[in-house]
Structures are given as structure tokens and as C-alpha cells.
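The protein record now logged underneath.
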Amino acid sequence: MSELEEFGLLQIPSVIHKDDCGYCFESMYNDDQMASHALNVCLTCFQSFCDTHIPVHQSVAKNDFNDKHDFLLKVSKIRKPEQKQPIEKKLKLEITEKSEDDTYESLWWLTKGAVIIADYRTQGLNSSVTTKVTEILNARSSNFQNMTQAWQLEVKPCVHVENLEVPNDNPQTVANRCTDCKLGSNLWMCLHCGNVGCGRQQVGIEGHSHALKHFESNPGHPLAVKLGSLSNSAADIYCYSCDDEVQFADTKKWIQLLLYWGIDIQSRVAQEKTLLELQVEQNMNWDFQMVDAEGHELRHLEGSKKYGYGLQNLGNSCYLNSVLQVLLNGDLSRWSLEGLGDFPGDVLYVSSNLRCQLIKMRNALKNEPEKYPHGVKPTTFKHCIGGTHEEFSSGRQQDALEFFSYFVDLLDKKVFEKSSSNPNDLMKFSLQDRIECTKCHGVKYTSQVSDYLQVLLSDSEEPQDLLANLAQNFQGDEVEFKCPTCNETTKANKSCGFRTFPEILVASCSRIKLVNWVPVKTSQEVLVPGTQAADTAILELGQFKSNGFDPDNETLLEKGEPAGFEPKANCIIQLTEMGFSENAAVRALYHSGNSSAEVAANWLFQHMDDADLNDPFIVPSAPSKAAEVNPQALENMAAMGLNPELCRKALIINQGNVSASVEWVFNNLDYCDSSIQESTVDEDDKEYGITDKDKANYRLKAVVCHKGASVHSGHYVAFIKKQVENEVKWVLYNDEKIVVADSPTNIEEIKKNGYIYFFDRS
């Protein structure tokens, strides 16, 4: 069989990784006519590699899998001259598939080894060959597939929609103005009685929330539809009881209901933006100043080893871009991915391997950033990092602090678990809680390891000092306490201090507060040492050092039987009155130390999208030093053909849950090797940081800022201190844009919108 006949018989998958090289960010797209950019699609595994890295892929395939992988389709896409057209920005509900034929001309070469078998100029090719080439060129890219799935907006019916009946009397006519204030726009019609009320006020949109007030006066009328955006292809239906967007699964019922209110959906044309369009537009408008006080554009910096490169926004990925820029490009003390070394020689599918994606990002940033003047798209990286996580695998905006914590934890568990030099250890420190019973004056000390410091701000619109708020946080308060010595519930003084100090301090200001029982983000000005780029002021944390147990002057409380977790009843009441479920309240109190409703509420605001937030909460059992697994469970998993050592690890992590363990194994197949060993050393036994309080002095290096009314909308950027022309200046990383941010307006942005602060120990 000839190579062309072999090619004609290939089974082409519907999705192919062809957006960039598996080992770098080289693509097949060219803005000129030179065809200098091309990718080789491997016709054995349907991954794509540039000319530099195709030998690397073939070496892995040959050495570890005894396969050549030398049958390739090389593709280069040349941009066609564009016709002048008016630029119109359109907002889409979801990403739609478009052909590239109108934008690019596709050049291709079919090769076997070093021999070109056919190319785009070859005459008289069999139709089976040209058909296969077309299939490969038109196959959906893996990144496009991932983005499409991530961006689909999921709106479901609710019980109120399902229970709503269409009236069977004569059709009615609805008003064209708000019945309370006569406003003629931003109108919502009650689907139960036809009352028309205005919506809430938004940026540039007038409103007085009379539609909501109608529901509050009529709790049995939760459903309303926005009249201005109603059309035959879109409908904004909101359920005030469920506090969410909903839809009618029964289209016929929906059309009949609207006809009853005198609305013919088939001929309806939207006059106003939908809720989604308003949200996307608002996110686009939440931008940071890219001009100075005189209106001049800030100086652009080209990608280089000194400044790195930009990261293009994938839609709502600015939270990821900002955190990555600080960690990979923030010049933080010794935090580096150099310890990962080169690409592993036994990984064939590099695009789904976390270690490979980290190396790919590191190499591009440190070794060849000049190759990417327009930045890179971290699509494959995001997909690999997000994995099966419900939120971080989606296209929705996320909280940057949550992502930072998730990212660090993921690297600890999946990349640096067996490494003696984990760069994340530089950010870890130990906090020590001290509890003193006010009756017997016995004391109890407990420690916990953390990788960031949460700073609660006071409820004030006045500028706040970071150090003063830290002092307030560490001051402590009086709590209820079940004293094992007194054998009764007493009052206790609880305080906190640093047991150890990190090399890199990550601190986050909690900028969430309740306004009319709705969590909103504030823009309080926070004064932080080093906010001015040339300011060398330091943050001194030595004063917050915990002294630890003093055997000469203190008596330890009796250990007794470990007391079970008992959530404070008054805090449960307060949290449920705020609208949280009892399960969520109990979970929050457990994770926030059971101290107060306010602290628990702040924890809840940061975990609103956790999939298990409202599930019944089971207090975790204390981990044992020697990790044991159920032999029968281990045997059952091994019988499925899974690696026994990996199964054992999964059972330990998932506390014996076989279903969760099986899922974990399939999501962590890159750990399948014979060297896996489960450590029996408790994480808390490992020491992090330093104990000398005189050396706990920190200089500000970078800030992740957030602008917007909620942590789940708006926009994130990173400010990083860099040497620019022999001066220390703030450099703003706004997705793919890198500019010198030395304008006073940028300093104000840092003060008002600073969210995560990164300090180096000086």
C-alpha cells in the first residue's frame, strides 16, 4: 500500500490539537505571505508540533512507545488581504464555529519521514486524499472545543416556571411604562399579573427597582421578563424567589403566555441589551487606566526576558493571567519553575500533562518572549490547570485569590509532591492560635500552615492602613470555649500570631461587604508600604510574632477527649437570615474557626461557587500518621487494571471513597509510575519559614488589582515593580498589554483596587 493510499484510509478525529505546538506557542498562522509559521500535524496521534519540536515528539514516540510517528501533514495558513469594512463590536451569547477559508489560505505538505509525498500544488490527486486534507483542516481545534464548552450559558427552568399556568380568559394588554414611576425603559413585566415595573439602576441605565418591590409586596409573583430585550431569539426571565435567571423548557407554553399578555414573540425585535450583553459590556468597561493624567498613552514595553510577554484574555481569564504574571514574571525571591527541568521524555500527550504545560509556559517566558510580541493564548494551559474543576474549567470569571490558592495546592499535590525543593514552600508560614480560659487561665496552642494572609478591612470609607488592620486582626477577641479543665463552656481569650514567617508574603485584603444583604466589592483606599514605585518602606511583621507556650508562667489545658465541632447557634441564625443555607453556614463556621458570623460570611463570599457548599457538612476526622487503606477497596480498584500504588494514593486522598478514588486516578494518570510512594509524614510536621522576628521585614513587589462590583465580574490586572531605564517603576500587565504605569492615576488604582499583595522578605 502506498503512502497516499494509507493517508486516504486514515480515520480523522473530529477534534485535533492544532492551535499551537505541544512544546511551545508556535502556530500555523501568518500575517504576511512568507509562510514562516507552520505546524506539523502528526497523523498517528493527531497532535501538532513546530519544525523545532517535531523531532522531540518523534524521539519520545520511538524510545518509549516503539513507534515512529513520522507520517505528518505540515500546515501553514496565510492571511488573505482584508476588505475594508466598518468595525462593529458584537456581543455573543456563545462562541460559534466559523470557517477560516475567508480569512486564510491554507498551504499543506504531506510527508513521510523526510520525503514530501504531495502538497497543495500537486495536480491530479485522488479525491480521497484531498478529502482527508480537508477533514484535517476543517476539524475543530481542541482549544476551540474547550472554549465552546466553557462558554455555553446554562439557564434552567425552576419550580416556579413549571408551576405557572397560562390563564384561559381573554388576552390582556400591558402598560408601556413603569406603574410606579412612569419610566419608559428598563421595564420588567410580572408574568403572574402583568404589572410593569422598572429594574434596578445600572451604569448608564436608569432604574428604581420597582419590579423587585412588586415581588416583595406580592411574594407569590416571583417571575418577570424584561420587555426591552425580548425577541424571538432571546428572553431575559428572572425568578426573584430563586434569585436567578430561568427559562421555559416548554416553548409552546412560553409563546401562549406572552400572547395572553398581548405580545407576539414572532414579530418582536429587541430594543435593549440582554442581561448577558450588559454583563459582558460592563466587564469590558471595567478597565484600568492606560493613559496618564494628561491623557497620553502609557509607554508600551516590548516582550523580552526582562519584562516577559503578555497573556491574551480568553474571555474571562484575566484572573488567571494576573496571578501567572506575578508568579512567573514577578521576580519573587527564588520562586521559580527551573526545578522542573526539561520536558519529560516519557510523556507522549504533552498537551494534557500539567508538568509539560508548566515547562512550556516557563520556557516561552524566560527563553524566548521576543517571539510573541502580541502575547500568547494560554488556552491549553488553562484547560490543563482547570481539569475537572467545576469553576476553573469554565469560561466564567473567577476570584483571583481562589485561583491562586487552587494553583499552589495543585502544584503541591501533582508536581512538587516528591520534590525536595518546592518553590511554593517559600510562601508558606505557620500561624499559631492561643486560647486562654478566663476561668482557670489554662492555655491551648494550635498551629496551622497557610500560603496567604487574609486581612479584614474595617467597615469604613476612609483610607485604611494595612499595618493597622493587621494589628486589629491579630488583637484577638473573646469567644465561647468548652474548657476541658473546667469541664464546662466558659469564655476564652483567643488571639493569633505568626509562629513562623515566610520568605514571600502573600496578603489579601477582604474587600467584600453586605449592602442590603447582597455581597458587593468595595474600593476602599488601602495604604501599603511601598505603594509608590521608588518607596523603599518595609512592612514590619515581627511585632505579631507568637511567643508560644511559656512553661514558667502558663499552664496547658488538659487534653481530655477531643471536643467535637459545635457551630455557634447565634452565628447559624445570623448567617441563615442573610440567605445562606444551614449546611453552608456550618461549613463556613468550621473553616473560619467558629469565631463570628462576619468572618464566616467572608469565607462564604469567597466560596459561593463551591459545588458542595450546600451539601450536608461532615466534620473531617483527624488524619492518622500511618495512612491505611481498605484492602478490599484497593483490590477492587486494581482489578480494574489501574496502577495499585496510584490506587492506594487515591484511596488515602479521598478517605476510602472508591468512586472518588477511581475518578482521581483517571484524572491523574501522569502519576502512573513505579516510584510512587505515599509519605506518612503529616503536612503539619513540616517546618516552613523562619522564626526570627527581627528578620520579618517585607518589601512590596507586586499587586493583583481588581476593578468591578463583584469578584466574579469586572477585570483583574497585575502591577509588578521592574527596573525601567535604571529606575524602579510599576509595570502594568493588562492581559497582552505591557506598559510603564508611572502615572498618579495608576497609583490610585493600586490603592483603591489592590486585592492580592506580594512581598519579598528584605
Summary: The mean pLDDT is 84.
